[in-house]
């Protein structure tokens, strides 16, 4: 079994609401982690040097979502004051600011090719949920399709061309906090996390739940408020490992595309881990070794 290296950065008294990351090998001078905070601040770290590269105030209210727009070298943020703000992350100049919602902006998704930011309502409204929309995500296979997770307990799949959902996935017994797409082979799936303490894997083309992942003891929101991160085998859906770094609740979880690095945002810090697995007899094993830990 190969060891898993982790790089740890802890920040006291910071509640991390979202993390994002990118790895632009040619056009960017650093490999960055983007974190948005309850304090209304956004931070960018170089994850190789573990140095804070940028930190700037976005709003007086919590910033619940932030995303890189790497092709423009921009950061887009969504806050509880209902505003979307876009910044140049080299100069920290504000590029744009506009009111984009009638409530807290809980999730921001950036279209992969078009100049669209999905927040639930902006230039175009998509209505169908009976409660707060907690997260939205564009499909990696079809840039005109996106999914939404809501506290009404459902997941809806939409097309940009229609204000009504294409269909609804119903299976959680409580509110759904997070949603994302992942590829299993060449086929796309959805995975959701819920207040019913479970995560579910959906074959959304067949409109069915293929697996329920259990084991958390509190609300699942990307990982869980119980402080645990569970790592599952995407092929067998078996639990491979459970991580708990003692940084209290987990609020955000980000995977780097094309990499086995994972960024975790807690009440009291961020952690990056590098996940290396070995398969033996159909089971997956993962070991995590802390490489460095810094206190503030």
UniProtKB/TrEMBL annotation:
InterPro entries given in the database record: Coatomer_complex_subunit, WD40/YVTN_repeat-like_dom_sf, WD40_PAC1, WD40_repeat_dom_sf, WD40_rpt
Keyword Repeat in annotation: yes
Xref: Gene3D superfamilies: YVTN repeat-like/Quinoprotein amine dehydrogenase (2.130.10.10)
Cell compartment(s), UniProt: Cytoplasmic vesicle membrane
One cellular component (GO) term of this entry: cytoplasmic vesicle membrane
The species this protein was found in: Vitis vinifera
Record's keyword terms, sorted: Cytoplasmic vesicle, Repeat, WD repeat
Domain of life: Eukaryota
Keyword Repeat (UniProt): yes
WD repeats: 126-162, 169-212
Main location: membrane
Pfam families hit by this protein: WD40
Name under which the protein is recorded: Uncharacterized protein
């Amino acid at each position: 079994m190969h060891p898993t290296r982790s790089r740890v950065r802890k920040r006291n008294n910071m509640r991390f609401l979202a993390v994002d990351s990118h790895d632009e090998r040619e056009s960017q001078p650093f490999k960055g982690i983007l974190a948005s905070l309850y304090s209304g601040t956004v931070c960018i770290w170089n994850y190789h040097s573990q140095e804070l590269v940028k930190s700037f105030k976005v709003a007086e209210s919590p910033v619940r979502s932030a995303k890189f727009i790497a092709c423009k070298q921009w950061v887009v943020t969504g806050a509880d004051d209902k505003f979307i703000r876009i910044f140049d992350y080299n100069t920290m100049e504000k590029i744009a600011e506009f009111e984009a919602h009638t409530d807290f902006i809980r999730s921001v998704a950036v279209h992969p090719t078009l100049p669209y930011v999905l927040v639930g309502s902006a230039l175009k409204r998509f209505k169908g949920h009976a409660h707060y929309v907690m997260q939205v995500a564009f499909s990696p296979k079809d840039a005109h399709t996106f999914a939404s997770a809501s506290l009404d307990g459902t997941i809806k799949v939409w097309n940009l061309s229609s204000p009504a959902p294409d269909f609804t996935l119903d299976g959680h017994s409580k509110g759904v906090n997070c949603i994302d797409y992942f590829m299993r082979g060449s086929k796309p799936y959805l995975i959701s996390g819920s207040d019913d303490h479970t995560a579910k894997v959906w074959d959304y083309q067949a409109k069915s739940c293929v697996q329920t992942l259990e084991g958390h003891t509190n609300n699942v929101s990307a990982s869980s408020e119980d402080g645990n991160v569970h790592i599952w085998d995407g092929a067998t859906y078996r639990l491979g490992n459970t991580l708990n770094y003692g940084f209290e609740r987990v609020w955000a979880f980000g995977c780097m595309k094309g990499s086995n690095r994972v960024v975790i945002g807690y009440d009291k810090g961020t952690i990056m881990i590098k996940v290396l697995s070995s398969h033996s007899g159909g089971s997956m094993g993962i070991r995590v070794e802390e490489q460095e830990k810094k206190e503030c």
